[in-house]
Amino acid sequence: MKTLLFRYSIAAVALALLGFTAFGLTRYFADPGAGSEATGRPAPAIEPEQIVATIEAGKQKPRFVGELAGVFIAPTPADWPAALREAREERLAGGCRAASRDRAAHLDLRAEPDLPGFQQSPPEPQVIECSGSVTSINREYVGTAANGGPATILLTRSVSRALGIDAAEESVSVTTIDGRTAILIRPVSPDGTGQTSNIIFPEDFGTTTVYAFNLSEPELIRVAEAVAAATK
Amino acid sequence: MRFLAALAVVLGVSIGVGWPNGTSGHQTGYQIIVQMTPPTKSSGSSPTLTCGWHTACVSPWSSGVGLDWDDDDDGYGNSWYFRGVMVTTNSAGGAVFKGTPLVNQTGSEVCERMTVWVTEFHHGTLRAAPMYTHVNITSASAFTVPGSVLGTYYSKKVGETIDDHGDSCDFFGSHVHEWDITVNSPPTTTSRNTTKYPSASTCHTTCGTHRNDLASSWTRKFTWNEGAN
After folding, report:
1. What is the sign of the dihedral through the CA atoms of A180, A92, B176 and A166?
2. Could you tell me whether strands B94-105 and A150-158 are parallel, antiparallel, or unpaired per DSSP bridges?
3. How near does any CA of chain B get to the CA of A177, in Å?
4. Cα separation of A167 and A208, whole Å?
């Protein structure tokens, strides 16, 4: 009797092992990724609370108000000198609309900037006229940042010599990019994740400005170098 | 005995085939579908579409991924919402992703642009970035969004419409320009509802009113397999 029970037990264990082996092999071939890390370029993992906390902490710092390299920067036009503010109000009084590109030849780039990994979208520059006069020509680019998230760049050449940009004092500085004087507005943290940043080049006609999103400081500098080369 | 052995193999294979994929890795085997709906006016209202699919709503009309929504109030300071009907194939439902409002572009002379980063709740992976132009953010905190098999409607006020006049901004009155940029493609698939909503060349003033709390009003749809890289 004991021998029979022993044999049945061995048979039951063998059958169970056989079933588990069949299950395991089936799972392996049905879903090779199960139980292992995915290969290839990983999708970016984001920590929303950390991003928000970093940005909000940056907002608590003293704001930059003042003139650098001939460009006045302050959080809003209300903070500008009266003459600059009134000139802006006069320009905008008649409203701003898209205009044809040929009217902006005097503001346009000498060459397209070399921005590897970025695609111009929309593919053509957009020209804006305010109260009947051309005020800017803009190019937009989208790409993927080093952190794996989406990055955007607006490159605008504008008649403005004053800009309403809300930046912390400590993030604003004057520098030289590829031989050109530039105002650098760094992201709140060097990695720039989910943050905005800027590069401003003073021009005879106004300013060339980069409005960047989700770029680290080194990536922002590379964009600035490409823009400097395209504007010399 | 041979019959029992064959039965064990058949059972093992059958269970293995029916087992959901990815349960022991990053993939959960579930699919998530985010169906965005019109971002203006309070839930249950029917905002007016003022320009069909476009890049810039000007002649000559060019196709694009943006829609303009009227906030139907005079002046500025009218609410805009991150909203839609959220689906998960997980019958248990629950949290499916987090939304993080972020400033994408800001300055007195450029159009103000905000985005909401959609990150998977399961693994923190960034999946989508719907965009909103001519608005600000009044609530910067990240928020958790639920889903269900039948679809859960979710609406969160994120900010308000603004006076967006500037030297570098084509702007003609208070509205929300709603669009998106591609993120992580694939595995996220983005669809745009060109059946329900017309192109700007077809309609660029008053393009009908559309209930903002119904899945049938979806404007763009982000679909991915939870945990997929």
Report:
1. positive
2. unpaired
3. 22
4. 18
Dihedrals phi, psi of A14, to nearest 5 degrees: -65, -40
Distance of alpha carbon B128 from alpha carbon B100, whole angstroms: 11
Q: Is the ipTM of this complex over 0.85?
A: yes
Give the number of A-B residue pairs with CB atoms closer than 8 Å.
Answer: 208
Q: Would you call B184 an interface residue with chain A, using a CB distance cutoff of 8 Å?
A: yes
User: Measured between alpha carbons, how far is B155 from B115 in angstroms, rounded to an integer?
Assistant: 15
**3-state SS, residue B153:** strand
What end-to-end distance do the CA atoms of chain B give, in Å? Answer: 44
Judge: A40–B229 Cβ closer than 8 Å, yes or no.
Answer: yes
Relative orientation angle of helices B2-18 and A2-30, to the nearest 10 degrees: 30
**Chain A (169-228) residues lying within 8 Å, Cβ to Cβ, of chain B:** 194, 196, 198, 209, 211, 213
Rounded CA separation A183/A69 (Å)? 8
How far is the C-alpha of B109 from the C-alpha of B102, rounded, in Å? Answer: 19
Distance (Å) from the alpha carbon of B123 to chain A's nearest alpha carbon: 7
Tell if the CB–CB gap between B105 and A21 is shorter than 8 Å: no
Q: Which B residues in the span 200-219 are in contact with A, Cβ-Cβ below 8 Å? A: none
Q: How would you write the pLDDT of chain A (232 residues) with one tens digit per residue?
A: 566 666 776 666 666 666 666 665 554 444 433 333 333 345 567 799 999 999 999 999 999 999 999 999 999 999 999 999 999 999 999 999 999 999 999 999 999 999 999 999 999 999 999 999 999 999 999 999 999 999 999 999 999 999 999 999 999 999 999 999 999 999 999 999 999 999 999 999 999 999 999 999 999 999 999 999 999 8
Q: Do B24 and A47 touch (CB under 8 A)?
A: no
Task: Give the distance from residue B115's alpha carbon to the nearest chain A alpha carbon, in angstroms.
Answer: 10
Place of tokens 């929300």: B176
A contacts of B187 (beta carbons < 8 Å): 43
Element (H, E) at B200: none
